[in-house]
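User: Please check token order:
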Amino acid sequence: MSIVEIKEGDIVLARHIPAGAAWPGGLKFFSQDEDFIQVGTWGYPAGTLLKAHIHNEVPREVLWTQEVLYVRKGSIRASIYNTTEKKVAELTIGTGDVAILLRGGHGYEILEDGTEVLEVKNGPYVGADRDRRRL
């Protein structure tokens, strides 16, 4: 399977990275440098050494909350909305898949009992009332 991008003109609303594409081995990033959240996977053989590093303090301006979902087990259906709150796509995200939600809106339906999802988003978190609005 290949990576699916949901777009509104030039704006990328979401990327779905199926498990088969998410874990190619080595280092692979699925985000653009300008995205507020950077998403990559890596997988190396035993004995590989990755050099220790520290991240420098760099002032950043974050305008949008962006989320990453990793489905550890089970599946979900993600409804994707554009920036005018119109539903434009549905993605079925299964075990091992990754979804990157960059702009617009989204909602989820759990499709299997026992589904487990890891969600990561940029911060700082400013509270539900300021950070989001229900559609």
Summary: The chain has a mean pLDDT of 95. The beta strands are 4-8, 11-17, 26-29, 40-43, 67-73, 75-81, 87-94, 98-101, 105-110, 116-121. The first strand starts at residue 4 and ends at 8.
